[in-house]
Amino acid sequence: MSWTAEDMGDLGGETVIVTGANSGLGFSATKELARHGAEVVMACRNLEKADDAKQEIENEVDNADLEVIKLDLADLESVSSFVEKFRREHDSLDVLCNNAGLMAIPRRETQHGFEMQLGVNHLGHFALTGHLIDMIQESAGRVVNQSSMAHEGGEIDFDDLMGEDDYSKWGAYGQSKLANLLFTYELDRRLEDVDSEAMSIGCHPGVSDTNLFRKGPEMTGSRIKLLVGEVFTRILGQSADKGCLPMLYAATSDALEGGEYIGPDGFREMRGYPEKQESTEDSHNREDAQRLWEVSEELTGVSFSLD
Ligand SMILES: NC(=O)c1ccc[n+]([C@@H]2O[C@H](COP(=O)([O-])OP(=O)(O)OC[C@H]3O[C@@H](n4cnc5c(N)ncnc54)[C@H](OP(=O)(O)O)[C@@H]3O)[C@@H](O)[C@H]2O)c1
Predict the structure, then answer these.
(1) 18 lines ligand 1 (CB under 6 A)
(2) Which of 130, 197, 241, 296 has the greatest number of C-beta atoms within 10 Å?
(3) pLDDT for residue 8
């Protein structure tokens, strides 16, 4: 039988962080987690948008337990400030949903000079996870990384990771989404090596109708690409409420083990209900995963203390 948000059961007493909780998949996931009793920390870069989103969920869900904390993944100092605030106010963390992301935008750089898509989608989340991994281990919790079918065409260009010599907006997106999975599986192996009960799981939403497809065309002012994106997601995609199900399943299902990958069960994984999927051979390449891990530690200055 198809798994839906109704199968999540009671999440009372659980604390979950969702990055990018003000929009699209993060918003829908936050709403359902709150509906099932979890305390959800909405980690968002724009406080005004985040407060509006929080209000919208509170209007729909009685007794929603939500808190907004500012997090800009394009700024490692913001990542550290987020973690400091979270730790001051919370004793435990059960699930970290690394969901926020940008897709196919013109080349931009983060505060530390990282190419923006790799910087936000992978490096910011790598740093966030490294800062919080002790709390996740203490609660035998989970890290859930939102990847994409775009990982299938992705390559990690270790010689030009930041696209300084040769930038392609889709290449950079594919690289960042492959990085999400290399990180997911490497983290899970490292947790297993120390006999941790914590897990790291990957997921993807298929094609979902969110703001993701609008950002790139809006930045370049391309009305045609905006229109093509709208038509593409409307025809092939599903709602954000459905697209967030793989992330919710990965975050809460007892039927899963670490290192698994969840996506929709329909035609070409573009839509449908969550089930276990296979990611590419490249995403399981251990040498690349270790190398990416080392580079990510070096770039972010964050190392994981796993025990
Ligand atoms: N929609 C799809 O079909 C699809 C397919 C495959 C994978 N995904 C993945 O799903 C995830 C969520 O995307 P979505 O579809 O829900 O798109 P969305 O509606 O555009 O949501 C993206 C979220 O990420 C946030 N974000 C962007 N840059 C950030 C930063 N520097 N710091 C913190 N937050 C930041 C956005 O904040 P603002 O609102 O302030 O911009 C927004 O909350 C992404 O990782 C994406 O790659 C989506």
Answers:
(1) no
(2) 296
(3) 96
Asked whether 20 lines ligand 1 (CB < 6 A), one says: yes
Which of 82, 211, 215 to probe ligand 1 with, by most ligand atoms within 8 A of CB? Answer: 211
Q: What is the reported pLDDT for 217? A: 80
Smallest CA-to-CA distance from 302 within 24, 94, 155, 82 is with 82
> CA-CA distance, 125 to 201, in Å (whole number)?
14
Handedness of CA 227, 232, 233, 234 (dihedral sign): positive
Task: Tell me the average pLDDT across 18-22.
Answer: 98
In ligand 1, which atom is closest to the CA atom of 75? 31
Q: State how far the Cα of 26 lies from the Cα of 244, in Å rounded to an integer.
A: 7
Domains along the chain with CATH numbers: 11-299 (3.40.50.720)
- Please tell me the distance between residue 36's alpha carbon and the centre of ligand 1 in angstroms: 23
**Strand 142-146 and strand 39-44: pairing?**
unpaired
Residue 225 pLDDT more than 90? no
Residue 216: is its pLDDT beyond 80? no
Angle value at C-alpha 112, between 187 and 134, nearest 5 degrees: 30
pLDDT at 103 over 80: yes
Beta carbon of 98 within 6 Å of any ligand 1 atom: no
Would you call 189 exposed, middle or buried from its count of C-beta atoms within 10 A (0-12, 13-18, 19+)?
A: middle
Chain segment 152-205, per-residue pLDDT in tens = 999 999 999 999 999 999 999 999 999 999 999 999 999 999 999 999 999 999
Atom of ligand 1 nearest to the CA of 233: 3
